[in-house]
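Chapter review. Work through the record for Rhodopsin domain-containing protein before attempting the end-of-chapter questions.
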Amino acid sequence: MSNHTQFPTADMPASVIPPPPGVTVDFDHPRQQKVLEHYLIFGIGGTIAFIALCQRFYTKIFLSKGLQIDDAFMFLGWVASVVTQAMLVASIAEGGMCAHAWEMPLSRFVKYSIDVYVTAPVYMLCNGFTKLSLLTFYLHLSPQRWFRICVWIGIVVVSLYSGCITLLMLFHCNPVRKAFDFTINDGKCLDVAVLYIATAVSNIATDVMLFILPMPMIFNLRMKIAQKIGAMLIFGIGSITIATSIIRLVLLPKLLTSTDPSWDAAPANIWTFIEGNLFVICGSMPTLRKFFKHFAPKLMGTSTNPSSYGAVYHASYANQQSHNTKSRARSQYQQFSDQNEMHTFHSDHKRGMDDDSAFTSIVVAGGGRESADDMSDKAILQTKTVTIQRD
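Structure tokens for Rhodopsin domain-containing protein:
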């Protein structure tokens, strides 16, 4: 007898919930929603994310100082994103995800539940690893104590909440198997939808934190307003996932009272796919300028603006120098490139000295006089090291 019949019948496989009255059930060809959207986002968005990651690694390995810990975190985040999307796409193809629970035989619903049980903590790891990648990258931006303390606090916070939510998603049922085996009647479970909402809320909070962290440093830069806005946009683009997390947060509460989670979760899962790809794409943007500058220098262009800056200096260094020397005229500065490259400064305490004194070594791209140039570092043509002793 065909499975395409009125539910229930004696020879039909059991489903986890009965259909609404008058609904015709088709186990072989269940109705599904948002299927094409999932396929397109996984196929196109996943490909773009992979290209972005390859660009990042190529730039780091061949055009920069090599891979670092932030690249390892980003790679792990990408793997977690791919695993999450691939498993859910496979579930869609099998008639699980995006289908009504009453149009799935019990065996298929158990398989769907296992997929969801596995992908939820894996996606939480994607979130955590990509956030840690950006935070460890921040450690290279400035040696200022307050900034590094804030970054380390962010690293601890992201590590703790990512680990806690991941463990709760894995062990929210007692016994654990009850999370995906509906034949087990004994035991208790937390509401996993609450954990999904906690994930979205934590994403929003940490995305806002990652956007705000470098802002004071940018505000204090001695540069034109337009250049400050440009620097803010660079960091702001990486926080575009705030929008996706907010959309997911709006969609997820429906799951709290849902009796048909495989169907009701489909719209929120679309934004999970988008967010997972954006984590990798946005996280790979810091190397994009150097990559295009190497392969398409004309596309990036050069600067003839005599007041353009070749590096992002923190205001504390500029202010310290400007108190001691006068600004030099900039009319002689012509044809500078790489105006938005970021460099860091390292402050080393000399061994054997008191804590109140230290040497700050600043490597500048240039020669000429030792007086400050009021941030016009692109005018300097040779490398020079200036040592400032702080008493």
